[in-house]
Amino acid sequence: MRFTLDDSQVPDGTILVFGIRYVNLDDGRPWNPSKVFTYAGLKAGSRWYLTGTGQVPQDAGWGAVARWLDDPTREVVSVRTVTGTAQLYPPPNPPS
Fold it and tell me: Tens digit of pLDDT for each residue in 49-63?
């Protein structure tokens, strides 16, 4: 099943966490079925910024991200959204 997303419904500040497995194009099977790589994507200013090296989309529209995800060498295993945050600084309850 292909992952799709209506980017117009996703607010700035959204963080998505992708689980990606790499596939051998010769036979369509994963190179290493137990190895899933994790990438994070942040939407800011209506643009997407993904972690990783190489040809990972940076400062890109959703179309570029979708094309990257749809590459035949990648299998999208999971997509999660970060639904909460915790304040680190200043501490929410400073010591008395």
Answer: 999 988 999 999 999
The CA distance from 78 to 59, in Å, is 22
Half-sphere exposure of 43 (CA within 13 A, CB side): 21
Backbone angles phi, psi at 40, to 5 degrees: -110, 145
Mark out the alpha helices in 10-61 (DSSP H runs).
Answer: none
Q: What would the two tokens of residue 61 be?
A: 């529209």
Q: What are the tens digits of pLDDT across the range 35-85?
A: 999 999 999 999 999 999 889 999 999 999 999 999 999 999 999 999 888
pTM of the predicted model, to two decimals? 0.84
Task: Collect all residues with Cβ–Cβ distance below 8 Å to 22 and sequence separation of at least 6.
Answer: 30, 31, 32, 35, 37, 73, 74, 75
Sorted by sequence, the CB contacts under 8 Å of residue 25 that are 6+ apart come out as 72, 73
Closest CA to 46 of 68, 72, 1, 14: 14
